[in-house]
């Protein structure tokens, strides 16, 4: 059975560039051929910033808004994630933090990769912050990543990369690592966890 990869669009703002990056990456993931791909757009979920009264470590399955149900079940079904993130003030978008914080078991013992894009820093500042966050959630972030510094110079008006070779190689090597870790963690999840 193939592993399930949820590709998460982390930007929800009007006029966002994110769908261009998402379309490119989903094609790369399909070309990789080893995952069943689910593209998740956080703009389609209800993601309030006001969180439940009790922390997720104490109550990992709180009552969630009806508009989050679909998101929660798709996150739960995934074996691995690739998060697409821009840098917002040297970090990642608030909608992404809300999606992370509303969930807990959905991230546990799963593999996570990143595609970043922005100005000079190419999403790397957001990615480094996300690595810290996912440590707390007992997820494994893979070493390899894709970064698009000055993304606005790299894609044409139809959303195609002007020079696709290097980004494609970066995406494939990240997906290879992700698949290795996702396979190992899927097997590990079937045995009882350490306390
Ligand atoms: C609130 C905000 C903060 C930003 N901060 C940064 C930043 O720190 N570094 C950077 O290179 N670009 C920054 N940008 C530029 C974004 O990387 C750029 O607008 C990109 O298109 C955002 O992705 P999106 O269009 O998918 O939302 C910022 C943009 C916004 C809206």
UniProtKB/TrEMBL annotation:
InterPro entries: Flavoprotein-like_sf (IPR029039), FMN_Rdtase-like_dom (IPR005025), NAD(P)H-dep_reductase (IPR050712). This is NAD(P)H-dependent oxidoreductase. Residues 4-150 form the NADPH-dependent FMN reductase-like domain. It holds the Pfam family FMN_red.
